Q: What sequence folds into this?
């Protein structure tokens, strides 16, 4: 019990330090967690996240820690794969280290998938299905979709929406609204939450709703949101854009404050 408490205290102390000190500590204690990643400044944030999460998963290999590491390795892999294609005229070694990092991320993601094939963790179940087409994982996830671990997680509500959007528009809208309802203060939701809502509302001729979430998306910094056709539909129907702009501003402020309340019943 004392040893376990000591490990947990060490993890809290580690993650509470300044980033440079934290990375230095991890790389000193477990140099292998740093040496097989890229050595240059590309993907700095993603690399740092991976190093810290590797250490945490090493000290406490729970499904939750494996899940967090898997997500960070996926982000790192996406970044370093692009960086690996960039030629460095003077220092070929930089490209080599990026390729090393890319290969490490693939190897580690494979390990994590293999380690969690029999998991009951909802996030891992979703990843096992969406990345590896594991139908058994999908079956297990749908069986627990009403559990608190799923219903009280904005991330999981969004994941389920990405599944149901293929065949159930109404349930998808419910799940996307719930995603926004569970959004934490100052957290910007995944852009696909807004683009999916806009698309679904437009599909069902709910132009007022499509307009409001188009404006909310723009306020959230999402580019390439085209509201022209929606505006024309509303103007043709005699709707006031000014009043909808006010509603959009209120909706955006509620979401960013963590105070959004879904207008639909669950």
A:
């Amino acid at each position: 019990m004392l040893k376990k408490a000591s490990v947990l205290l060490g993890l809290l102390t580690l993650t509470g330090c300044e980033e440079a000190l934290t990375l230095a500590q991890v790389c000193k204690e477990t140099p292998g967690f740093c040496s097989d990643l890229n050595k240059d400044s590309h993907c700095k944030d993603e690399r740092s996240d991976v190093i810290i999460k590797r250490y945490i998963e090493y000290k406490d290999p729970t499904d939750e820690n494996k899940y967090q590491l898997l997500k960070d390795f996926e982000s790192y892999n996406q970044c370093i794969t692009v960086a690996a294609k960039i030629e460095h005229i003077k220092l070929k070694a930089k490209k080599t280290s990026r390729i090393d990092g890319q290969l490490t991320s693939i190897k580690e993601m494979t390990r994590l998938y293999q380690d969690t094939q029999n998991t009951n963790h909802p996030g891992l179940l979703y990843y096992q299905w969406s990345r590896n087409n594991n139908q058994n994982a999908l079956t297990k996830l749908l069986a627990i979709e009403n559990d608190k671990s799923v219903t009280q997680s904005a991330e999981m509500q969004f994941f389920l929406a990405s599944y149901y959007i293929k065949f159930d528009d109404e349930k998808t809208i419910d799940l996307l609204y719930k995603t926004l309802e569970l959004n934490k203060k100052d957290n910007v939701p995944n852009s696909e939450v807004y683009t999916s809502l806009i698309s679904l509302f437009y599909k069902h001729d709910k132009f007022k709703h499509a307009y409001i979430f188009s404006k909310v998306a723009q306020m959230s910094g999402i580019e390439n949101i085209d509201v022209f056709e929606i505006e024309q539909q509303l103007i043709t129907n005699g709707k006031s854009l000014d009043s909808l702009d006010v509603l959009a501003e209120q909706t955006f402020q509620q979401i960013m404050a963590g105070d959004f309340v879904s207008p639909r019943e669950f």
Summary: Residues 92-115 form the longest helix (24 residues).
